[in-house]
């Protein structure tokens, strides 16, 4: 009996070992973009965040995992892809380090920056004055507009004015919490962690509308063409890269990379790939400055 | 320490409304769990093999599926199947039915904890089956199940936090998270939520203590 028990223990230990060696941590690895910098990386002064990241050889960037076309997991490859990831990758490439992508929800992305879980946040985050008090932003790398999404056969909602008494879904911690409170005070807000939950709720009829950035809503229409956008744009939402508060050297560096990304044609290519081919609309890289973006919200 | 007090006073209405939602959810689920749990326990100790098996299937189904999965099935699943179920019904039903499985197991074990000899003695003294259960077995079973039922209730109160997240209901935790995302006072907001849950769990603990004293054997 004693011998059998030892044999079982050994098998169990082996099985555990195999599991640890093979399966776990898979997510982190596969989420890596896989593209390493081809150009010779720049050198930075000792003590800067850029130098520290180069020393570590990797940068942790918080992105969305369920928000096509800005940040989402490709089911086939397991990689995270989207417009936000293209910008993030440009920053990692400029540093010459590996990008490690982690999921940052609207609700936890600012805490992630503050507690150092993420070095940067690129998760469809609108620049505004309240957030600017807590963290720093790069110059805007994209400008979205606030819109409303309803079912195609719903004629009762044609704009924000029709949302009174209706159930409207948006993400917890997004700017739309306040936008809806202001523009449609009698609407019943249903706050979820991730926009994929809003898609589920409108599909199963639990909510009447979803309100958030046009590009996120377009992503939902790509997945389900029985949905449509209605009404005029509600708000202007300039997306910025989130950086830990007070790190002005890093902020400057990130804004510089964003500018380069806009100037050398990568922005246009990325826009076409993720947005333009679906909306059939052309767009120019945003020229709005960080200050203008912050002023916009006040 | 003053920061969470300040946050509590500044956002009292939101937190109170979240607390109220959680309280209603917990009370509703408790009633479902008590009624269904008792019925299932009755099946489990019924004299028919088939009824016992039926009770067993219930317990193993609801005890072995994660609560989050049950909630998603009860809400999104049913809605997609064409049942226009609301968040309250889905939340109370899923939490209540899940907890009922545990309640049933505790009640069953309580009845079985009363030794066989007592039943035999009662029957030989002329009590019938019904009287034996009512006068001999159940009073003793009650004593042994109070404490585990209290633990289950406390677990259910804590499990209710999953409902708000899964069904987009503004319960206590959700309200705290809304405040955290608006004020960026993450720690203070969660301290307030923790205090709210403690109020409920401590109330449950006190109720259990009182019941235990009432049914205690005076030695």
Structure explained in plain terms:
- The complex is a heterodimer of chains A (298) and B (219).
- Chain A has two domains: 39-141 and 240-291, Periplasmic binding protein-like II (D-Maltodextrin-Binding Protein, domain 2), CATH 3.40.190.10; 144-236, D-Maltodextrin-Binding Protein, domain 2.
- Chain A contains twelve helices and 14 strands.
- Chain A has helices at 2-22, 26-31, 49-56, 83-95, 109-114, 129-134, 176-183, 195-203, 214-223, 248-263, 266-279, 290-296; strands spanning 58-63, 66-67, 71-73, 80-81, 98-103, 120-122, 135-137, 142-151, 167-171, 188-192, 209-213, 227-230, 236-239, 242-244.
- In chain A, a hairpin with a 6-residue loop joins strand 3 (71-73) and strand 4 (80-81).
- With 219 residues, chain B is mostly helical.
- Chain B has nine helices and no strands.
- Chain A binds chain B through residues 106-107, 110-111, 133-134, 169, 172-173, 177-178, 190-193, 197, 200-201, 203-206, and chain B through 75-76, 79-80, 84, 87, 165, 168, 170, 174, 177-178, 180-182, 184, 186.
Shape by Cα distribution of chain B: flat
| Global outline of chain A | globular
Describe the biggest sheet of chain B?
Answer: none
Average pLDDT over all residues of chain B:
92
CATH topology of chain B: MetI-like fold
The number of distinct structural domains of chain B comes to: 1
**How many strands, what sense, and barrel or not for the largest sheet of chain A?**
6 strands, mixed
- Helix and strand content put the structural class of chain A at alpha/beta
- Which spans of chain A of ≥5 residues are poorly predicted at pLDDT below 50? 23-38
Span from first to last CA of chain A? Answer: 75 Å
CATH superfamily of the largest domain in chain A: Periplasmic binding protein-like II
- What's the CATH topology name of the largest domain in chain A? D-Maltodextrin-Binding Protein, domain 2
């Amino acid at each position: 009996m004693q011998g059998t028990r030892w044999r079982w223990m050994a098998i169990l230990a082996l099985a555990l070992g195999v599991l640890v060696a093979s399966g776990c941590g898979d997510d982190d690895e596969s989420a890596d973009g896989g593209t390493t910098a081809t150009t010779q990386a720049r050198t930075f002064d000792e003590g800067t965040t850029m130098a520290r990241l180069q020393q570590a050889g990797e940068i942790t960037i918080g992105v969305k995992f369920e928000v096509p076309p800005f940040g989402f997991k490709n089911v086939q490859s397991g990689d995270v892809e989207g417009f936000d990831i293209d910008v993030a990758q440009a920053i990692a490439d400029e540093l010459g380090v590996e990008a490690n992508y982690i999921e940052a929800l609207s609700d936890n992305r600012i805490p992630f920056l503050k507690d150092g879980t993420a070095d940067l946040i690129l998760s469809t985050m609108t620049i505004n004055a309240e957030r600017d008090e807590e963290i720093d932003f790069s110059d805007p790398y994209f400008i979205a507009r606030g819109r409303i999404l309803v079912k195609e056969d719903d004629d009762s909602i044609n704009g924000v004015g029709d949302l009174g008494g209706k159930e409207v879904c948006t993400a917890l911690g997004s700017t739309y919490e306040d936008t809806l409170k202001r523009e449609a005070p009698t609407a019943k807000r249903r706050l979820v962690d991730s926009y994929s939950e809003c898609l589920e709720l409108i599909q199963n009829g639990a909510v009447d509308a979803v309100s958030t950035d046009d590009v996120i809503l377009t992503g939902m229409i790509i997945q389900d063409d029985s949905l449509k956008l209605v009404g005029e744009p509600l708000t202007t939402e300039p997306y910025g890269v989130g950086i830990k508060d007070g790190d002005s050297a890093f902020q400057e560096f990130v804004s510089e990379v964003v500018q380069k990304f806009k100037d050398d044609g990568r922005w246009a290519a990325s826009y076409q790939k993720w947005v333009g081919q679906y909306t059939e609309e052309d767009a120019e890289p945003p020229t709005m400055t960080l200050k203008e973006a912050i002023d916009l919200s006040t | 320490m003053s920061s969470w007090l300040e946050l509590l006073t500044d956002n009292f209405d939101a937190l109170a409304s979240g607390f109220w939602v959680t309280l209603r959810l917990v009370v509703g689920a408790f009633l479902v769990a008590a009624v269904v749990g008792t019925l299932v326990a009755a099946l489990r100790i019924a004299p028919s093999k088939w009824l016992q098996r039926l009770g067993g299937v219930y317990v193993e189904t609801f005890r072995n599926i994660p609560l989050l999965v049950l909630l998603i099935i009860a809400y999104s699943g049913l809605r997609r199947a064409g049942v226009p179920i609301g968040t309250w019904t889905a939340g109370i039903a899923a939490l209540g039915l899940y907890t009922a499985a545990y309640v049933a197991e505790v009640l069953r074990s309580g009845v079985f904890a009363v030794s066989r000899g007592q039943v035999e003695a009662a029957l030989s003294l002329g009590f019938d089956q019904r009287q034996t259960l009512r006068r001999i077995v159940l009073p003793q079973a009650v004593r042994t199940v109070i404490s585990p039922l209290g633990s289950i209730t406390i677990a259910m109160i804590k499990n209710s936090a999953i409902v708000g997240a899964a069904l987009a209901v503004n319960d206590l935790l959700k309200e705290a998270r809304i405040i955290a995302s608006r004020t960026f006072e993450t720690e203070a907001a969660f301290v307030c939520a923790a205090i709210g849950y403690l109020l409920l769990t401590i109330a449950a603990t006190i109720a259990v203590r009182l019941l235990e004293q009432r049914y205690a054997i005076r030695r």
